[in-house]
Every structure is written in C-alpha cells, then in structure tokens.
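Q: May I have one protein plus its fold?
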Amino acid sequence: MTSMPPASSSARPLLNRRLAEFGTTIFAEMSALAVRTGAINLGQGFPDTDGPEEVREAAVRALRDGRGNQYPPGPGVPELRAAVAAHQHRRYGLSYDPDTEVLVTAGATEAIAASLLALLEPGDEVVALEPYYDSYAACIAMAGGTRVPVTLRPHEGAFRLDLDELRDAVTDRTRLLLLNTPHNPTGTVLSRAELSAVAELAVERDLLVVTDEVYEHLVFDEAEHVPLASFPGMRERTATIGSAGKTFSFTGWKVGWITAAPALLTAVRSAKQYLTYVSAGPFQYAIAEALALPDSYFTAYRQDMRAKRDLLAAGLEEAGFGVYRPAGTYFVTTDIRPLGEEDGFAFCRALPERAGVVAVPNAVFYDHREAGAPFVRFAFCKRAAVLEDAVGRLKALGAGRPERGLPAALTGPDGS
C-alpha cells in the first residue's frame, strides 16, 4: 500500500519557489542528447584533452605525499593562495595578501554563489550583463535578490555594451554589479574605456562589483583583459573571480578563487564555509604549480585556441551561419537566420539528427528570450580533428540553401 504525503505538504510544491523557474540546465539536456545520438558535443564548454602533463603529475605527487587528502585549510592551501596573489601581481600589478585577500573555492561556480549569498539581502537588485551564464540567475534567486539584465546587443560583428543602458539600470535598490569579461557566451571583451565607465558608475553609486574573469587568459587579436579591480576606487569594492579549469583544461578539478579586500573577502568566506567548506585538496597544490608556469605556456595555449576559433568560425560561415567571431573565451555565437531558422531551441534540439552536432541555444541565457532567440553557441575547446569533423557535418545544412542576405545586426554601416 502506497503511503500518501500529509495534505499540508501536497498543497505546496517541493521545490523552493525561488528556484521554480530553473529546471535541468541546458548543458545537461544537450550533453544527454549528444550521448543518445552519438553527435559531436560542441555545446558544453569542456576540453576533450587534459591540460599540461606536469600539472597532472603535480596532482599525483600531492596525492602520494598525502598533501590535501584530508581537509585542507578553509581559505585554501597556503601554496595556492600565494600562487594566486603572485599571478595577480605579475600579470596585472595588483597586490593581494595571500592570508587575508585570497579565498579558494570549488570552481568559479561556488565563488559566484558564495559572493551573492554573502553580499545580497532579499530585495536587493543585481545588474548583470545579458546573456549571462545560467548560474548567475539561480544564485541571485537563492540569495533573494532581483536580477536586472542589461542586454549586450549585436553591432558590427560583435555584441556591445550600451553604457547609457547600464547607467539607467542602476536604481536606489541596486546593491551589486555582476560583470563577466571576457564574456560567456558572446565572446565580448570589454575595453579599457568601457571598464573605466563601469568603474566610475560603481564609485559614483557606491556599488559592490563581482567580476567573473575565468577566461582572462583567452583573449585574441587586439583584445586585452584588464581586471576591473585595477581601476581607481575599485579594489575595495570588487570581488574578482578566477578559475583553473578554463586556463589549464582541468575542468573536473573544480579549483577557483576570489581576490578581494579583507572586509569583502571575510564576508564572502562567511557564506562559502557553509557551502563546500573545502574541496579539491590535492588539486590545489597542483594548480599552485600551474599558475607559476612560464609565459610561454599561456602564449601557446592562447595561440592554439585562436587557431581553433578560426577553424570553427570559418567552417560555420561556410555552412551558412552568421558568425560573431569572439574576442575572448572558447565559444562562438552564431545567428541561424541566414539558414532560414529563427528558433534557437528548436534548431539545437533538431541539430544532432540533422547534422550530428550539438550546440546550445543562447536564449537560455536571457531574461528577454526573444532577444536571444536566433543565436546559437558552439564551443571550440576540442581537438582540431573533432572540429574539422563537426564543420564537415555542419556544411550539409547549407547544401542547396538559397542565397540570403545577412540580418542587419550582422552587417556593418556600409552593409559589409
């Protein structure tokens, strides 16, 4: 005989109402679709090869030597905190105290969650760039905050931030700006001028800022990554998030970190200690060694990813997509309207059967779903042979396709 739940519980949904709008992530759905159909998975952003052998061996050494096999210190092992501080100073001239201004987290995802849970009260508004990584919305909701999206819009082959729109989004209820540059999923890298304007706004309105900078080493061509914390008035109000997964291709290790002024970091640590408490003990030692790799590693890694970007972008263009070639990250956003399509969800769910490739619809990263409807994201952090295979499959979409003009959003002022 099946027991029935009490009447009082049956009248109320099991899931916390703050999370009611969030179902299974699009990444889980599309990855499952890739497995079921045998399609090439260019949806989820994980590499298909491991990172440097010396970093992997450093993890093995730590395991064998018994370093990190038990609970590491709550803020992170001293070696990694020192390595993060040294990295920020060497790369950007930012000085952080490893003991009071660096916190190790279970990847950037926990860093985002801990920051928002610590810094927000119910009713606080968070201004975030749209499209945004999906955990942003969920973490804001869990903290009881209200998200206020500022949409990056296509203009002359890239997605651009409207600084006037950003300023207009800030109200008396705004507590925090959540910034992502290099930006996932669009590949936009905010310029010094844009970041300076953001900094001036944050200082003027006395806002806290959380910056997600996990793709800091993946910027291409003329783009450069400049931490927001380096601008006047920003160090004391900015929590900067970094991660080893994207830079060293060990995404499963889940090693991230936050750098911030002592008072800000203490607040975030107060929330973080009740999430994972600690994680990835032996891997922390390995990432400490990874951060000390010579500049040649970072240069070679960036050049390799740029070549893969160009390979995939050129193939997508030949297949008939409108392509926004990214200035950073390892994702390419495309416009499916030149293919005669408009619904990114329907397109991505049908793509594995049509072409044997999995992608992700950008609309899932928008509050304004209609703004993201025709855009689809592909990841290029895969082996060149896999990308070449995917490109060959995708070209079938354009076979026999009538010539179409690009949507206005993809053309320059002269129609180019």
User: Anything to note?
Assistant: The first helix runs from residue 7 to 10. Confidence is low (pLDDT under 50) at residues 402-416. The first strand starts at residue 40 and ends at 41.
